[in-house]
Amino acid sequence: MELTSKIWRSLNRLPPFPATVHKVTCLINNPDSSLSELVEVIRLDQGITANILRMSNSAYFGLRYKVDNVHDAIMFLGKQNVLRAVMTAGASRFFKDTPGYEVEAKDLWEHAVGTALMSQILAKKILKHEDPQLFTAALLHDIGKIILGEFVSEKYHEIKNVMSVRSCSLLGAEEEVLGVNHAGIGGMICAAWRFPEDIQQAITYHHRPDCHPVTASPVPWLIYLADQACLMMGIGVGTDGLSHHRLDEAMSRFGFTNKDFEEATTLLFAELDNACELIGIVQPKAA
Q: How far apart are CA 152 and CA 178, in angstroms?
């Protein structure tokens, strides 16, 4: 009971998500908003502004001209890419080392970015279009580890023992030992940050999309596929390891073949090569 109380207190101490990101999202979703309104909102957050300019000049966005101000960044990137850049810049500030999951902040962040990029590759192949909400949910899918990491570390041996003796997943061991799991905590964090319920639910069920109450929603399944692809490729692997129990089910749900999956992972390798500036926002902790 005391451990659960500590977890809730830690959750309540988490800083709010940058208001700039929510304001930008509202403006981009409003067809009547203007370029000048976007510029003024973004300029108020110096950290996000610096990272947007840094990302705008990266190979990932492939702009032909060097961008040195927010106005030009928005004009050349387009609204959806601006939203992606702002969301990435805003989310990056929350990532830190999570010793309980045997992963450093830079690796956890690389896994987050990789999963977000893979979610868009899958969306284009399966849904025939990219999905900004899916990108956000995929980027934040493991955010619960930021809170739960210290408690997993405290109970490390007990959790490892449960996983070994019962042959259960990390998620199941977390639930048994801590009374909560990182996916559920992640959904709660996004609720506290006032993200849409679809994003909250997708994060809560990203390990168990078969338990999602809205069975017709493809989002938790796509995040699951993207997450598993990154784990299989060794992108930010920690205690999670490989746990692709429902991989075949997820692929068959979309009529996705092994060849399709291999092609998608090949595309992800290329995307990651171009996304070094996005990944580099979170730096290794100084020794």
A: 8
